[in-house]
Every structure is written in C-alpha cells, then in structure tokens.
Amino acid sequence: MANKLILDIVTPDGHIFTDEVDEVTAEGTEGEFGVLPEHIPFLATLNIGMLSYKKGSETGYFFINWGYAEVGPDKVVILADSAEKSDDIDIERAMASMKRAEDRLHKTGKYDEARSTAALERALQRVQIAEKRQS
Amino acid sequence: MPTLSDIKRRINAVKNTRQITKAMKMVAASKLRKAQSRMLDMRPYADKMAQVIAGLSGDAEDLHPMLVQRPRNNIEVFVLTSDRGLCGAFNTNVMKAAERLILERRAESFNVSVCTVGKKAAEYFKRRNIKVRQAWTGMSGNLVYADVRKIAADIANHYMNEESDEVMIVYNTFRSVMIQDVTVAGLMPLAASEEQVKTDEPVPIYLYEPSQQAILDQLLPKNVEVQIYRALLESQASEEAARMTAMENATQNADEMIGTLTLDYNKARQATITRELMDIVGGVEALKD
Asked: Per 3-state DSSP, what percentage of chain A is helix, strand, and coil (rounded to 5)?
C-alpha cells in the first residue's frame, strides 16, 4: 500500500520538480482538486494557477501556466507549458507585466483582449503565489 | 614546376581556410551544446505526453479526427532541413530520404504535398520541380515556440480540413555527436505512429475532467506542436553536430595539405640552392682555366 505520492512536474524546459510527497492540490479547469495516495486514475486539464504539495510539515507552491495532470495511485504527473517554484518567481517582473496588461485592457481595440486578459491572469497568480512564501 | 612564391602563396591560402574552418568548428561546438541541452530538456515532456495520449486514446478511437485513419488519398510529407550549408551530409541525407518517399508514394498514386523547414529543402525541391505547399525559413539557431505553434497550426489545419489524410515527418534524429539518423515518422493520425509510443504499464481507465472529448480536443493539437518542436530541436542539434564534424574534417585536411605543400616548398628551395651552388662552382671552374 503506497502512502506516498511521486509528484513530477515536466515542462518543455525539462523536469522542474520530482519528489515524494504526501498530498497535492491543484487548480483544474473545473475547480480545485486535491490528490492523496491511492487516488483513482484521473486526467484533468489545469488552469493558470497554483499547485501546492505537502511533504511532512513542509509545504511548497508552484505557479502552473496551463497544463494537464495525470493522476495514478502512486504518482501525479503534471505536464505544464511552464511552471515556476514560488521562490523563483520574480515579483517585480510579474508586477510590471500586470501593469502592462492592465494598461492594454484599458485601451480597448488596440490589443488582443483575450491575450491581455490571459497575461493579466498569469501576472496576478504569480504575485499571489510569490506572496505565499513571504507569509 | 611551380615556383617558390607560387607554393608559398598556396600555403598561405590553405592556412587562411584552416583558420576559418577552425573558427566555424568552435562556433558549431558551442551552438551544439546549447541545442543539445534544449533537446534533452524537451525529451521527457514529449515522452510523457506521448504516454498520456497512448493511455487516453486506447478507448477513444473515433472521438477525434486525429485518432482516425481515414482512407488515404492525400499524404503530406514534412521535411526538416537547415538554412545554412557546410554541415556535411546533414541536408542531403534528409532530402534524399524525403524525395524517395515522395516518389514512392506518388508511384502508388497517392497525392503528395510537401512542406519544408529550412532554405536547403525549399531550394532542393524547387530545382527538382516538386511543388512545395508551404516553406518556412529563418529558424535555424533561434527557434521560438511561437513559430512552432504557427507551423503546427498550419499542418494540423490542413489535416483537419481533410486536405491531407496522413502526415509524415522526415528529419535527423540526434543519436550522438558522430551519428545522426534520418527518421521517417508518422505525425498524424496517431494510429499511424503508434508503434513509437511504448508504455510498459497497463493502460489505466481514467476519470476525466472536464471530459474525455474536451481533453482530447486540447491535448491532440498540443501534441502535434510538441512533436514538431521536438523534431525541430533534434534536427537543430544534429545540424550543429554535423557541422562540427564536417569542419573538424576540413581542418584536418587543411593540416595535411599544409604538410605536403611545406615539403614541396622545402624541396623546391633546396633545388634552387643547389642550382645556385652549381652555378657558382661552374663559374669558378671556368675561371680556373
């Protein structure tokens, strides 16, 4: 009986993270879901958002930019376009891109609205996740 | 018999060439390192994706056109080459394999359309009067994912509009710095390329969120992007590796040539000295009488 999960985060830039953890929480397109060991095989699309894991008393956060989660009884594989550990997020850059995206949204018609909204969403999530580590 | 200064000039010319090939080798080596690490980083993602899709499509034969083998009439061949030459047999190998494939399929009376990446393939097929449907260039060296997305969208659309029923991709796979293999693989539909996807684990039955259909609709086009991206990275690493080897050989040949030329030069110099000495000795002998 497995009582650990292997969390594996893979992006086009390589393995970002591989470790044994106790619990994983991710943001699916249909809402947040949590995974514990012995989960039923499960495949979900992920939103732009946060992924967190618990390992003992330690909690880690990741920013996930679109992707898929494949869940098996003893593993969680995340295929993401890009992923960043909360410690690696550059808050200043995220703040700057948030501002840029907001400006673009105000000037309607000039920029692709869907793209600007997505950029804003990404920046917002990044800032929120980065703040997690400080608290 | 070439004169001394002729030989000297040739030696200098070869030395200059050697300097250039040496520099190109160094540049290729450093580019290779970059391309190789990008390619290696990409591999696990592409493999995982192929695995997920294999698990996903097991019981979903007819849920998505990319999973269904339509009756084959139109075949698209997608050839990856480089923009620049001087990289040994890198381009020739791919283009020959592609041309053979195209002619074979034409002989079997399929309609074949051709797409290319890189100037070399575009020029090659133009010379041979093979019509190229779409040619992308200017991507060697600075491959951006946005470009890959454009290419993948074009090829996927062509397939989804039923203008092509099968897409084959021809490119160099990077095995090692010395060895690059020409690979011919099926890109779409997935059934055609299934033998490459190996899963050791039994395929589990998944719970889907939002739904199998929705996930397939997203994942399959994404997969085309990823597989093309991977092929491009492989091809790029192979290009630099091939260039490095070719330039290494050129440098060695130049070394050899300089060796032989220097030998000739010394022989010629020796001959001149001997001749001059003979003249002097002859002159002295003549004066004696």
From this structure: 30, 50, 20
Least Cα separation, residue A55 to chain B (angstroms) = 24
Give the total number of structural domains in chain B: 2
Q: B202 in a domain, yes or no? A: yes
Question: How many residue pairs bridge chain A and chain B with CB atoms within 8 Å of each other?
Answer: 63
- Chain B contacts of A68, Cβ < 8 Å? 52, 215, 219
pLDDT digits (tens, 9 = 90+) for B145-189: 888 888 888 988 888 888 888 888 999 988 888 888 898 888 887
Residue showing tokens 């995206």: A101
The closest alpha carbon to B220, from B242, B240, B190, belongs to B190
Domain closes at, from B210, B225, B244: B244
Range of the domain at B13: 4-22+246-288
pTM over 0.90: no
Closest CA relative to residue A19, chosen from A79, A63, A68, A77: A77
Q: Domain residues of chain A, as ranges?
A: 5-87, 89-134
Nearest neighbour of B218 by CB, restricted to A10, A42, A45: A45
- Checking A96-105 for CB contacts under 8 A at 24+ apart, the result is A97/A122, A97/A123, A98/A123, A98/A124, A98/A127
Q: A77, B40: Cβ pair inside 8 Å? A: no
Our CA-based measurement puts residue A134 at a distance from the nearest CA of chain B, in whole angstroms, of: 30
Among A14, A30, A79, beta carbon nearest to B41: A14
CA of residue B87 relative to chain centroid, distance:
9
Q: What is the pLDDT of residue A17?
A: 86
* Residues on chain B touching A64 (C-beta within 8 angstroms): none
Given a cut of 80, whether residue B202 has pLDDT beyond it is no
CA diameter of chain B: 117
Q: Per-block average pLDDT, block size 10, for chain A (135 residues)?
A: 80 84 87 86 85 86 86 87 80 83 78 79 80 64
Does B142 contact A at CB distance below 8 Å? Answer: no
Same domain, B237 and B197: yes
Assembly ipTM: 0.75
Q: Tell whether B208 and B269 lie within a shared domain.
A: no
The active-site residue, picked from B14, B24, B77, B87, is B87
Q: How far apart are CA B200 and CA B251, in angstroms?
A: 46
Cβ-based contacts of A10 with chain B (< 8 Å): 44-45, 48
CATH number of A5-87: 2.60.15.10
Query: What are the tens digits of pLDDT across the range B42-99?
Result: 888 888 888 777 777 766 666 778 877 778 888 888 999 988 888 888 889 999 999 9
Query: For domain A89-134, which CATH number applies: 3.40.50, 2.60.40, 2.40.128, 1.20.5?
Result: 1.20.5
